[in-house]
Design goal:
By secondary structure, the protein is mainly alpha-helical. It has one domain (2-214). Helix content is 81%, strand content 0%. It has helices at residues 2-19, 24-36, 40-60, 70-96, 106-110, 115-124, 127-145, 148-177, 183-214. The model is unreliable at 102-111 (pLDDT under 50).
Length: 215
């Protein structure tokens, strides 16, 4: 029991160190929280977590080595760069076109992209997420699997809880200060988040290209 608690705790803190680094998932969480409120953060985390469950299963069945293959990591970088650019440009267009408002409605909340889907897209478009799981994550899965299913569940529970806590905290901060934003400020925030995603798209695309050229 003590070892399971240690696995859970270390996974939690290492997960927090990764979650707190700004990236596409942070931008997506903030955007959807501004649009839909606090409930968006758990949905983004769920989309992210579904892919992480899939990767843990791949590691357990011995397919983790494929994630480090140059053409796999490079292709993920190229495709991820294109997808993030599309998402970022869409955010900028919607904000600049005056399609956003702080006053939400059921129709607006049901239209457009979903937090769960964007959580999955932002995760899958990041080649370094795959590389993290193929190296650090693989080591943790191997270590925790020595304790059987309880060990793996302790590891994954701590890891995904870190994401949930951090993104939920961001959502609380956004929602608590939301009434202080005018529509104009809100639009500029969304434009800024869109530009952030576009910048990451160039970074991911160039990183993927370098990986393939070096292969």
């Amino acid at each position: 029991m003590l070892e399971l608690g240690l696995i859970f705790t270390t996974a939690l803190f290492i997960g927090l160190s990764g979650a707190m680094m700004p990236g596409p998932l942070t931008a997506v969480t903030l955007e959807h929280t501004f649009r839909r409120g606090y409930a968006a953060a758990p949905l983004v985390t769920l989309g992210h977590g579904l892919l992480e469950i899939a990767v843990v299963i791949l590691l357990l069945v011995g397919l983790g080595d494929y994630l480090t293959l140059p053409y796999v990591a490079g292709s993920i970088g190229l495709a991820g760069g294109v997808v993030l650019a599309w998402m970022g440009c869409g955010m900028i267009r919607s904000a600049a076109g005056g399609d956003l408002t702080l006053e939400s409605s059921p129709e607006r909340e049901q239209s457009g992209r979903s937090p769960l889907g964007d959580g999955m897209i932002a995760t899958a478009s990041n080649p370094y997420w795959f590389l993290w799981w193929a190296t650090i994550g693989a080591g943790y899965v191997a270590l925790s699997s020595e304790r059987g299913l309880p060990g793996v569940l302790s590891f994954f529970g701590g890891h995904i809880l870190a994401d949930f806590l951090w993104f939920s905290l961001l959502a609380v901060v956004v929602v608590s200060g939301r009434k202080r934003f005018t529509d104009r400020v809100y639009r500029w925030i969304i434009i800024g988040l869109g530009l952030f995603l576009v910048a990451f798209s160039f970074y991911f695309f160039w990183s993927g290209l370098k990986i393939i050229l070096a292969w």
